[in-house]
DNA sequence: CTAGTCACTCGCACACTGTACGACAAGCTC
DNA sequence: GAGCTTGTCGTACAGTGTGCGAGTGACTAG
């Protein structure tokens, strides 16, 4: 009579092997710190002390790997239960949670717009979002319109924010000197675009961080105000 | 006495040469039809009957070329003069114009979030937008907050829309069969995500196009409603 | 103990990318 | 003619994703 596997002892510790989780995790590290162009299969493999093509046993293609990484990010986003906060502050919280996830993983905008990406975490996120807006009293027809307008707003704003921060980073300057250089440029073309100059000056008075946060909050607030008038129940 | 140039005849027609405009134009064609991955310097050169490296005399790098292309798209977006329509319908028009430009050039989202891109058309667009909102009666402080929330909303929504369309295209199925396949998938995981199922069904009843347009309009309307309450003057 | 079958690793090779370099040519001004 | 500017392009290099097939360690059946 054969003894079942889980009681039987292993003769020797199992061979150390790569795992999909491990690959995803270190790929995430590379992506977060070096961006999309910094991630190559060879570099990833090297960091795992493995041959480049070994990865392909665990992951079909690089694109699939990126899909896994995207879904990982969706998994980091909170959606509060509606009974805890009400839909409005729930949506606000959701927006902020989504923003901070995107700021932690600034590579996401440049890859997410070319691919399906309907992994389990994305599904769960979408589902929980819909629950929130349903509880908020939107009509059946409006629930996912409301939900997806909030998601799109956050996505767009934070993508733009990430692009701005990227601009600063690439310039190699510090934040302050970058802002002041922008000011100079704005001065130079002031005659052509007087409005832009005012805008830059307005943003300069706050720091870059606060200015971007204010931007995000202002629009989200306005959008939620607009959505509030569409609550019917 | 030397005769001025414009009266002097050319001895021979000038040598045919590449031009930046020409390069930009055919690159735009490739990008629009084959997407970002379809654009390579060699392919672009081949389509111009030129050697690959000849392009580098007219354009410093491929990235710079893409920057030119992005600014070209910004140039296609209308912003109405405020006195023609008022800020609200002006903003609506602007949003639709921006949307259709992005739908014509669906490659834009995947490249715009990694780079500066403050070309002349972008500047002019921003400036005209600010004029519109200023005339709308927003406080000095709110003008560019309002403006950029609209831009971000449109950007985010249409980027997501483009991604959806890309999904359909890549699947190789027709629009209808794709939608019904989505329905099946939704049925399959219905127990886990009942909300998603409802959402998919709602979208299925309209066509894909109308559903996406409705989505866009709904959120933009809500956002503008919210912004309207912030008009002070 | 041997033979066989999985699960997994990895070197090589291929086609492709952006672009630096330097040789070359055509047209213009002296 | 000489010399300069403008422009073209072949070659080469370092890098990419990944298909293929050989190889290896751990396990099981006989």
From TrEMBL, chains A, B:
The keyword Ion transport does not apply. One of its GO terms (molecular function) is transcription cis-regulatory region binding. Residues 17-77 form the HTH tetR-type domain. Pfam families: TetR_C_1, TetR_N. One of its GO terms (biological process) is response to antibiotic. Keywords: DNA-binding, Repressor, Transcription, Transcription regulation. Residues 40-59 bind DNA. InterPro entries: DNA-bd_HTH_TetR-type_CS, Homeodomain-like_sf, HTH-type_TetR-like_transc_reg, HTH_TetR, Repressor_TetR_C, Tet_transcr_reg_TetR, Tet_transcr_reg_TetR-rel_C_sf. It comes from the Bacteria. PANTHER family: HTH-TYPE TRANSCRIPTIONAL REGULATOR RUTR, TRANSCRIPTIONAL REGULATORY PROTEIN. This is TetR/AcrR family transcriptional regulator. The lineage of its organism: Bacteria, Bacillati, Actinomycetota, Actinomycetes, Propionibacteriales.
